[in-house]
Amino acid sequence: MATGRELVARIGPAALSLREVARAAGVSHNAPYRHFVSREALLAAIAAAGFVALKEALLAAAQTEPEWRLRALGKAYVRFALDHGSDFLLMFGSAIQKEDYPELNEAAAAAFNALRQNVAMPPVGDPEIGALGAWAIAHGLANLVANGQLPLERAFAVLDGAGPNQGSG
């Protein structure tokens, strides 16, 4: 799986083959099939591990004072995308038929639940809607950072509430 992750980062998920993973890992070309039934199964396992790591990052960020928690969660999400760009893009990309991999879906749901349970919303309204809004903002910024379209500092400035007309950033 580690070799698969390295190759995804280098050549992208579309170019990945189990034969290439075997060659890079220095094992027989059939060895990966003992662990993964297909290339997509390997990609799903890599994505699931990414969601587990994202969940852990969100839970760590949630260990802050409630008034700073939403910003901390957003920054952790964006930082994860920057530090694990190829994993992040695989996790949310279209290279995997996600409905075919229950473990991947469970890991993704657990990561979202870590966000949802730690987003403090006013008592009125649907907390699920508030969590989806927070996720959409963090995910949009993270995607821009992971794709090199926005510097990390600018993404953090948005999360800190410093807009372009306020002179900071």
C-alpha geometry = elongated
Strand percent estimate? under 5%
- Give helix and strand order, one letter per element, not per position: HHHHHHHH
CATH topology-level fold name of the domain at 47-162: Tetracycline Repressor, domain 2
> What's the Cα radius of gyration?
18 Å
Give the CATH architecture of the domain at 47-162.
Orthogonal Bundle
Distinct helical segment count: 8
Query: Which residue ranges are poorly predicted, with pLDDT under 50 across at least 5 consecutive positions?
Result: 162-169
Mean pLDDT reading: 88
Just give the CATH class of the domain at 47-162. Answer: Mainly Alpha
Amino- and carboxy-terminal Cα gap: 39 Å
- Strand tally, please? 0
Q: Give the structural class.
A: mainly alpha
